[in-house]
Amino acid sequence: MCGRWRQRVRLQAHCGAEDQGRESFAQNRMLSTSQIEALETAAAASAVIRVEDMHKYYELGETRVHALRGVSAEIQRSEFLAIMGASGSGKSTFMNILGCLDRPSSGRYLLEAIDVSKHDKRALALIRNQKIGFVFQGFNLLARTTALENTELPTLYTKIEKAERRKRAVEALAMVGLADRAEHYPSQMSGGQQQRVAVARALVNRPSILLADEPTGNLDSRTSVEIMEVFQDLNDKGLTIVMVTHELDIAQFAKRVMVFRDGKLRKDDAVLNRPRASEVLKTLPTLED
Q1: pLDDT confidence bin for 14, thresholds 50/70/90
Q2: pLDDT per position as a tens digit, 180-212
Q3: Cβ(132)–Cβ(239) under 8 Å?
């Protein structure tokens, strides 16, 4: 009889026989195990993205490029993650796989607990339209189309009714602070406003995750922080955001930063003393200054 068992028997001696202590101990052990299992299940359920031992190879003539080398990671629901790394580090390949624009050569990619690693192109396209919103460095707006119509575009590939499509587009523009610019054309908006329209377009199908590839790459310093303010506000409301950036000062607005090098995930750290973009904007000069 181990020491812990003896201790529990002594503590329950006043209740009677040793079998009572044994039964109580077993119940406590079962409770502890079930609690742990419940916590593990909850943690798994909260992971909107999970990649397991992911590898990606590209064949370039007789050369085989090993772009990703055994990457494993989890991204929890409502996280704001920044991905950094030099050119050729694997971050863009990782982002393409997360966005279902490419598939891993081996390993698993689970999106909301669904293994999409082996899905065909048609299935991946459906997932992209339903679960993922994209924001790119270039705004990619249609020049002769209003902000509202640009925002509404992704819904045209769904079965959503016309009235609901328009309603969602109006709501998405309001979320990025452009409700009063709905009828403006891209040529009538600043770069920051055009990027906000691009964000609204990414949100219109109500995705589970927003993927942003260098969203501030074409913007000045103040406008970049304004876009980070939009991202932080959306993240505060529960949207999961994954952003690729080369700019360390922009990455600091995220909650967590991953760094890739040579196809491997080298660092994965929480951001300490994370700045609020709304407060940083108060310290920056306006464009007129």
Answers
A1: very low
A2: 999 999 999 999 999 999 999 999 999 999 999
A3: no
Averaged pLDDT, 158-184:
94
Q: Is domain 77-102+129-281 classified as CATH 3.40.50.300?
A: yes
d(CA 67, CA 253) in angstroms, rounded, equals 27
Domain boundaries, the chain: 3-36, 77-102+129-281
In the numeric block, the tokens 């026989």 are attached to 17
Q: End-to-end CA distance of the chain: give it in Å, rounded.
A: 79
pLDDT greater than 50 at residue 16: no
pTM: 0.81
Residues 126, 23: Cα–Cα separation, whole Å: 53
